[in-house]
Amino acid sequence: MPEQIPEKKLPLFTEAVAAGFPSPATDFCEARLDLNELCVKHPAATYFVRAQGDSMIEAGIFPGDVLIVDRSLTAKHGDIVIAALNGELTVKKLETKPKSRLVPMNSKYAPIDIPENSDIEIFGVATTVVHSLKNL
Amino acid sequence: MKPLFALVDCNNFYASCERLFDPSLKNKPIIVLSNNDGCVVARSQEAKALGIKMAVPAFQVADLVKKHNIKVYSSNYALYGDISSRVMATLESMVPELEVYSIDEAFLNLSGLHLNSSLAAYGRQIRQRIQKHIGVPVCVGIAPTKTLAKLANYAAKKYPATGGVVDLTDPERQKRLLELTPINEVWGVGRKSAEKLKRLGIENVLQLAQMEKVRAEKLFSILMAKTIDELNGNARFSFDDAPIPKKQLMCSRSFAEKMTLYPPLRETICEFSAKVAERLRSDQMLCRVVNVFVRTSMYCPGEPTYSNSATARLSVPTADTVTIMKTATELFDSIWKDGCRYAKTGVMLSDLCAKDQLQFDLFESTSGKEHQEKLMAAIDQINQKGNKKIWFGSQRPKENWFMRQAHLSKAYTTRWEDLPEVT
């Protein structure tokens, strides 16, 4: 014979109840650290891309790494940039002196000159590389 | 404070989004198709030049596509929704008041703004910043009324010599442009009204602006009278007040007190879903795409910034509050992050169609909505399986219809597995 489980009516809260205890630290509470704050300074102008190939391993960028690219920055000499070259997106170091060129960071590859009126476009500046040590 | 508006509008938005991560598409003809309808919903300039018109059924242009190697894409709402939210976030950081009008258009309230430069220079600043920060080209039209701002934007697009920015505050300049512009370009003047106006001898916008308002109200509506006022420089449509049926419907709110907790924020999404669904029903329309966005404040230095949006495509167009709310809350859950002080959330419905345009007549039955839903689900299932497909009305395509080659580009900015690759 099935047992009767006694019922008890519980009050339903109609207002949001703050979880946790009232803490003396409430006024001093800080938001937990967030990687977005560390890596993404301009969310609307920030895109993520994935590196392939070995052309930038000497810069610490390995195949499969995620690059955080900020389009709001103006690319300067020495910056790692994402550029549109021959219809594809590529990641290289930008040099503007003594002449403009895109430089791979791997001795296997040769630098690419950027002629005066070339249609090479800079997509954005890579500010951070996310290299995973484990397959997530 | 004299009213001053800007209309910022992205050029060939969907096509521009497709170009963003595929540089090989630069200067190439591209068209974007609407999935279910199989119609052209966007074209790059090069595709326009080849004679592809807006809203043509895809199979009608199959020959042109083959001949000129035109690249074809299916609508990638995940991508377009994200790029759109970036454009709007950037505009919001430049002006205190923004009214998002559609996925690629927004009105800016410039009234009372103290500018260090001319209006045209300010417009160019907006254009340059969006191009640099996000990567899509936009045009800017500035004028004392919303209707004139829309016309200024049209001129900015049509006349390349303007450099994509038109300041239409000068009455003389207004007159010159109005005289050159056909009436169907006026915001709120649809095809039927345009035909009726032409029969009355009104063909260019200047003639419309000179029409007697009382007569206009009698022959058309109070909206037409207000439009005439607007064309003459008197603002009748104020901010966040657009009586003309929109291409998208949005409900959003900026919070005076930043919000951090999940339950009240989720509540805002429910509230906006209900509001926007109600507006949809009162406009006698249905939607197919739901987008939800959240962002922290743009003005608090030192605080973590977070801005995100999520989009979903419904299999059946709907104006049902429950469906929209369920979808919106699921989308919200996917982008909600703890620890942020949110300043704004919103729900946007797009890919709208009029309720009476939906061709369910052949299958109409007395069991109503549930039957329709079952029917739609069955049709979707059949269409996903074999080669024979079920189409509505006049959609039947040719056997070797090229659309089978059309593909969806990757969700470059919303899925980790779809990130653009760089070598």
Q: Can you describe what's shown?
A:
The complex is a heterodimer of chains A (136) and B (423). Chain A contains one helix and seven strands. Chain A has 136 residues and is mainly β. Chain B contains 14 helices and 14 strands. In chain B, helix 6 links the parallel strand 7 and strand 8. The longest helix of chain B has 21 residues. Chain B starts with a strand and ends with a strand. At the A-B interface, strand 1, strand 3 and strand 4 of A face helix 4 and strand 14 of B.
Question: Which SSEs are present, and which pair or pack?
Answer:
The complex is a heterodimer of chains A (136) and B (423).
Chain A: H1 35-39, E1 46-51, E2 66-70, E3 80-85, E4 88-95, E5 101-103, E6 112-113, E7 121-130
Antiparallel strand pairs in A: 1-2, 2-7, 3-4, 3-7, 4-5, 5-6
Chain B: E1 5-10, H1 13-20, E2 30-33, E3 40-43, H2 45-49, H3 62-68, E4 71-74, H4 77-92, E5 98-102, E6 105-109, H5 119-133, E7 138-143, H6 146-158, E8 165-167, H7 171-180, H8 191-199, H9 205-209, H10 213-219, H11 222-231, E9 249-259, H12 262-282, E10 285-296, E11 307-318, H13 321-335, E12 342-350, E13 353-354, H14 369-385, E14 421-422
Parallel strand pairs in B: 2-4, 7-8
Antiparallel strand pairs in B: 1-6, 1-7, 2-3, 5-6, 9-12, 10-11, 10-12, 10-13
Q: Using DSSP, what is the number of strands of chain A? A: 7
Strand content of chain A: 25-35%
The main sheet of chain A comes to: 7 strands, antiparallel
Q: What oligomerization state is this entry in?
A: heterodimer
Average of per-residue pLDDT values of chain B = 84
- How much is the average pLDDT of chain A? 86
Provide a count of the helices of chain B: 14
Span of the ends, CA to CA of chain B: 54 Å
Distance from first to last alpha carbon of chain A: 51 Å
| Structural class determined from secondary elements of chain A | mainly beta
Task: From the structure above, extract its key features.
heterodimer; A: 136 residues; mainly beta; 7-stranded antiparallel sheet; 29% strand; elongated; B: alpha+beta; 5-stranded mixed sheet
